[in-house]
Write a structure and sequence with these properties.
Length: 161
């Protein structure tokens, strides 16, 4: 029993020592990620002085049938400016092994979105992430993207600050 308590204490301590984290939130995706349903995040009260790194985090299962992932990410600033990016990420090796971390069939991926961001304006920043995955030769994207279970947004202070 003593070993279990020590292990639990070690896990809690490790998780709580994430001093670089500024914002970290996930949204669960049920029954496939619908192309018409972007994932939304509202981020308020971000320190404007240091630079920040922004990541898109997601969890996928073996039901994800592609080796890459295309996303359209939008950041709306408090003054109404929109920054829109089309992003491509490699999700598997050429041999078909999933990238990311995890011990079972769920893999967690921390994908670079923006590096060295300064949130100069006070107020709420709105982030929107939608998938743009499609089969080769198709113009329209997959209506439902199977195998993505959670989509998240993480903002961190760089480790050297």
């Amino acid at each position: 029993m003593h070993k279990v308590a020590m292990l639990l204490l070690l896990v809690i301590t490790t998780i709580s020592c994430d001093t670089n984290r500024v914002y970290d939130n996930y949204h669960t995706v049920n029954n496939g990620w619908n192309i018409q349903e972007p994932i939304q995040f509202e981020v308020s009260d971000v320190d404007s002085i240091p630079l920040h790194n922004v990541f898109i985090t997601l969890r996928n299962t073996n039901a994800y049938k592609y080796s890459n992932l295309f996303l359209i990410a939008r950041m709306d600033t408090p003054n109404g400016k929109q920054l829109i990016d089309t992003l491509e990420y490699t999700m598997a090796t050429p041999e078909g092994e999933w990238l990311g971390t995890g011990f079972n069939d769920v893999k967690e991926n921390k994908l670079w979105y923006k590096e060295g961001v300064r949130f100069r304006e006070s107020g709420t920043y709105n982030f929107s992430i939608e998938h743009a995955v499609r089969k080769n030769g198709n113009i329209t994207g997959d209506e439902r993207l199977e195998g993505i279970t959670e989509v998240g947004l993480r903002i961190e202070r760089p480790q050297n600050q």
